[in-house]
Design goal:
single chain; about 325 residues; alpha+beta; RNA Cap, Translation Initiation Factor Eif4e; elongated; TIF_eIF4e-like; RNA 7-methylguanosine cap binding; protein biosynthesis; translation initiation factor activity; IF4E-domain-containing protein
Length: about 325
């Protein structure tokens, strides 16, 4: 038996290419030194230019990917059963062995902020947000148009899945026309100063250079729907991004003038990874209303002066014509 096995092995090893040398011996090993990475030279996910400030906004900073703001519980992963007849062989022995082994589950242990019920949910189940949010849009309009009437609600969001379904189809701020606005407000709060939830509050104003609003707008929305403001979340009414010709302006509206506004400002700096010396200006809605009233009054006076000057010019022209007619007579 051993002798026959040795002969069989010899015949297998000596038989190659009809007695010739193995043709694959002459093939040189494949070198990977000349193969470039498929990501070589690839641009970032967003064309962000030089950044909002000197110390950030470069292309090396990648935006957050969808889902990072939510702590989704992993679904229980089970070992799929096989229908292969070969794997069913000795099935009785495997079942007997399985009874002796404790089952292993991949469901994570709920944290302090998760209930056991939510930890057992799958990714396909609706994941409700703490608040329901409404996205409003204000297209470019004339200065004399009514602000509230020109700002229209687009959709309402109450789950994480709805947010990504809507956000993935919305234009980024960089794709909006100049002098247009996105408003992201809690349901039941109108994006106007006079609303009951807004009139006692104000807003934090952050001015950004062109080219970085997309990333920071996404980060800000993620912080708002992900309840990153913690105990100050009740004070946050909404946020606005205003697209202008030379800059993009963020406005985070708060419920009260005072209160937890400092906490809100520091949270904004943290979630957006802003430099410590970033200049954020606070402005109460009362000041905004006063300023708007002064602008409207000045505009009306200017319009009145133009009308009076036009009337005087018309009267002067009429008087000159009458004088010329009398002279001709």
């Amino acid at each position: 038996m051993d002798k026959d096995r040795d002969n069989l092995w010899s015949r297998r090893t000596n038989t190659s290419s009809h007695g010739r040398n193995n043709p694959f011996n002459s093939v040189t090993p494949l070198s990977t030194s000349g193969i470039s990475s498929p990501t070589t030279g690839a641009s970032g996910a967003f064309g962000l230019g030089s950044g909002a400030f000197a110390s950030f906004g470069s292309a090396t900073k990648t935006p957050k990917t969808p889902g990072t703001a939510f702590d989704f519980a992993k679904a229980v992963v089970g070992t799929p059963s096989s229908a292969n007849s070969a794997e069913k062989k000795d099935g009785d022995d495997k079942k007997s062995f399985a009874r002796k082994v404790a089952p292993v589950t991949t469901t994570p242990r709920p944290t302090a902020s998760q209930s056991i019920e939510s930890a057992a949910r799958g990714n396909d189940s609706p994941w409700p947000l703490k608040y329901t949010w409404v996205i409003w849009y204000r297209p470019p309009t004339s200065k004399n148009s009514d602000y509230e009437k020109s700002t229209r609600p687009m959709c309402k969001i109450s789950t994480a899945q709805q947010f990504w379904q809507v956000y993935s189809h919305l234009k980024h701020p960089s794709g909006l026309p100049t002098v247009s606005d996105y408003h992201f407000f809690r349901d039941g709060i109108r994006p106007v100063w006079e609303d009951e939830e807004n009139k006692k509050g104000g807003k934090w104003i952050l001015r950004l250079k062109k080219g970085v609003a997309d990333r920071y707008w996404e980060d800000l929305l993620m912080a708002m729907i992900g309840d990153q403001f913690a105990e100050a979340g009740e004070e946050v009414c909404g946020a606005v991004v205003s697209v202008r010709s030379g800059e993009d302006v963020f406005s985070i509206w708060t419920k009260n003038d005072g209160g937890r506004n400092v906490k809100i400002r520091e949270t904004i700096k943290r979630v957006l990874s802003l430099p410590a010396d970033t200049n954020m200006v606070w402005k109460s809605h009362d000041d905004s209303i006063t300023q708007r009233s002064a602008i409207d009054q000045a505009r009306q006076e200017k319009t009145g002066h133009h009308g009076e000057r036009r009337r005087n010019q018309n009267q002067s022209s009429t008087g000159n014509a009458s004088g010329e007619e009398k002279a001709a007579a």
